[in-house]
């Protein structure tokens, strides 16, 4: 409501133009960057593939749209270089540690470890309780909110379980070896607490409208929570910055990129899509529009069906490969642990593998980014901690389960070994993680490319509907609910543009905005962690003394006859 209150309409116009520009790119951003300096995309689920370079000069056949697109793309290329310089600044660690340790990795991983210790390893203590809450053992239909615990969990998972689980893990193992998978799992373990803290705060500071609609997330707890601590000015700045970053990310990495990457796989199966990409775009517009026009209730109802299906199909395919090579599973784990702590080149070897694993895990599960807190704020509950423990299951499912499955398949198949598989070396060099994963599965399941195509389309679709809600909540936070429909229409327009526009740097800018969201959010988590600790201590004491026993109904709503 800030911008509407102060009538910053020139700013609104500039933001709208930025959003439109951010939808004009659908390819990976690091086309021309030097090795070792490229930024990996966040798990909002972005597959890292490289695109064909565009010509530097206009051609007679090229229309004014393509020319304008190139000019905008060049402008954002400068912004991308600055964002990379900040997000991936390594403090000179490449000189004195033998490997580059990017600032964003330290920020996310360090914060997750700090919060895990401060919350007394709640990710372990509350795991069983989290499953019971998700099952509905504590559900009350009369509690304030819009969706159930399970629907909130699947809505948030739909934005994280996706292309990053297919492509990101493959690149991590391909570049860092089997040991990178160990550090991905470790980062996912600590990331569970980051999700717990941010989603607890999302519930604690959410705003429930008279009509039942809920507004919550980092933009709320940064503003209100820090104001309670006497840091009102800082809170307002951080909340506005977060909201702007989230809006930009929703149109780019959460929308246009998803359309393009899923369309690239569909092209290999349907020639008509290769010739007329806009047809695929229109189909996705209709599919996405039917869901997002209905708001979070319809998004959650769709997500609770799609997420278990797509995760189940992918895990079953992984298990089929593992069962085929069951005798190599002990060998795979031996290599994972031994190479995770290998001290080649002093500390550079182990730290290099550690950074690769942590980086990929952070980009996959988005723990600390703050996006999931928006979805979990809508859950029906009267205890903020209760939704926080549900949220800690996300990194477990996303990273410790799904990513581990992908990693084991790649390790057992051996395709990560560039010496034995020349095509795999090409895929690794091109950051084609999806291609590497497909090669691994194809060794056992010849028809897996079809399964992969369906999985990627479902992953992309679920990511878009969830990110549309994230962006909309941030948009209405700034401009008011009357602009909600306008945002949804603009989002659908971005879906269509994602299938026809082919710039390079503009979307990369919006992808990096996802990572940038971690800076205001994690700062807020640090400052507000004391409040979460107090809420947790009170809740846990009540739980252990049987104070919630009357609420637990084992599947039957409280108050039901």
Summarize the structure.
The chain has 561 residues and is mostly helical. The chain is built from 26 helices and 2 strands.
Describe the overall structure.
By secondary structure, this protein is an all-alpha fold. It has a single domain (95-544), classed as Up-down Bundle (Amino acid/polyamine transporter I). The chain is 70% helix and 1% strand. Strand 1 (207-208) and strand 2 (214-215) form a beta hairpin. Helix 12 packs antiparallel against helix 23 (448-479). It comes from Aeoliella mucimassa. This is Amino-acid carrier protein AlsT.
Brief descriptors of the model:
561 residues; globular; 26 helices; two-stranded antiparallel ribbon; single chain; Amino acid/polyamine transporter I; disordered N terminus; mainly alpha; disordered C terminus; 1% strand
Number of domains: 1
Shape: globular
Helix percent band: over 70%
What's the CATH architecture?
Answer: Up-down Bundle
Order of strands across the main sheet: 1-2
At the fold tier of CATH, the topology name is: Amino acid/polyamine transporter I
* Helix/strand structural class: mainly alpha
- SSE ordering: HHHHHHHHHHEEHHHHHHHHHHHHHHHH
What's the CATH C level? Mainly Alpha
- Report the biggest beta sheet as strand number plus sense, adding barrel if it closes: 2 strands, antiparallel
Average pLDDT score: 76
Catalogue the unreliable spans. Answer: 1-58, 554-561
Gyration radius, in Å: 22 Å
Our measurement of the CA-to-CA distance between the termini, rounded to an integer number of angstroms, reads: 43 Å
Task: Work out the number of β strands.
Answer: 2
Q: What fraction of residues sit in β-strands?
A: under 5%
The helix tally amounts to: 26
């Amino acid at each position: 409501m800030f911008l509407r209150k102060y009538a910053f309409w020139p700013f609104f116009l500039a933001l709208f133009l930025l959003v439109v520009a951010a939808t004009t790119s659908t390819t990976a951003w690091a086309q021309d960057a030097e090795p070792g300096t490229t930024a990996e995309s966040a798990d909002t689920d972005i597959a890292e593939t490289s695109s064909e370079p565009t010509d530097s000069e206009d051609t007679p056949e090229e229309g004014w749209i393509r020319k304008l697109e190139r000019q905008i793309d060049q402008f954002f290329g400068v912004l991308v270089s600055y964002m990379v310089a900040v997000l991936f600044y390594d403090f000179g660690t490449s000189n004195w540690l033998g490997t580059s340790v990017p600032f964003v990795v330290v920020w996310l991983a360090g914060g997750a470890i700090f919060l895990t210790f401060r919350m007394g390893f709640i990710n372990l203590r509350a795991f069983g309780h989290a499953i019971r809450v998700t099952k509905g053992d504590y559900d009350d239909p009369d509690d304030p909110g819009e969706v159930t615990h399970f629907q909130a969990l699947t809505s948030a998972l739909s934005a994280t379980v996706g292309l990053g689980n297919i492509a990101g893990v493959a690149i991590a193992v391909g570049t860092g070896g089997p040991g990178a998978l160990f550090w991905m799992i470790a980062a996912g373990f600590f990331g569970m607490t980051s999700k717990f803290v941010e989603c607890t705060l999302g519930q604690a500071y959410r705003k429930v409208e008279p009509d039942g609609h809920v507004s919550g997330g980092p933009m709320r707890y940064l503003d209100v929570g820090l104001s309670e601590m006497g840091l009102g000015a800082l809170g307002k700045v951080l909340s506005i910055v977060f909201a702007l970053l989230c809006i930009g990310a929703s149109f780019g990495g959460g929308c246009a990129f998803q359309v393009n990457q899923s369309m690239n796989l569909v092209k290999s199966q349907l020639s008509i899509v290769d010739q007329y990409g806009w047809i695929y775009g229109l189909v996705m517009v209709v599919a996405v529009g039917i869901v997002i026009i209905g708001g979070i209730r319809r998004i959650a109802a769709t997500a609770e069906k799609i997420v278990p299906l797509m995760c189940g199909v992918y895990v079953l395919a992984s298990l089929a490969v593992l069962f085929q090579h069951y005798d190599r599973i002990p060998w795979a784990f031996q290599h994972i642990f031994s190479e995770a702590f290998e001290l080649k080149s002093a500390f550079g070897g182990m730290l290099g593998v550690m950074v690769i694993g942590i980086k990929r895990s952070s980009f996959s599960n988005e723990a600390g980014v703050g996006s999931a807190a928006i979805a979990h704020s809508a859950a029906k509950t009267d205890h903020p901690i209760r939704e926080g423990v549900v949220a800690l299951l996300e990194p477990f499912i996303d990273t410790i389960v799904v990513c581990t499955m992908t990693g084991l398949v790649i390790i057992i198949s051996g395709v990560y070994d560039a010496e034995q598989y020349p095509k795999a070396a090409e895929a690794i060099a091109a950051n084609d993680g999806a291609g590497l994963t497909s090669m691994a599965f194809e060794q056992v399941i010849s028809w897996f490319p079809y399964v992969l195509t369906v999985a990627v389309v479902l992953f992309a679709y679920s990511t878009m509907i969830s990110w549309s809600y994230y962006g909309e909540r941030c948009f209405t936070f700034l401009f008011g609910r009357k602009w909600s429909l306008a945002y949804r229409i603009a989002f659908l327009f971005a879906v269509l543009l994602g299938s026809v526009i082919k710039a390079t740097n503009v979307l990369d800018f919006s992808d990096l905005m996802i990572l940038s969201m971690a800076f205001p959010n994690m700062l807020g988590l640090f400052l507000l962690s004391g409040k979460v600790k107090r809420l947790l201590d009170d809740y846990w004491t009540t739980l252990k003394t049987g104070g919630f026993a009357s609420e637990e109904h084992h599947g039957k709503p409280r108050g039901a006859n």
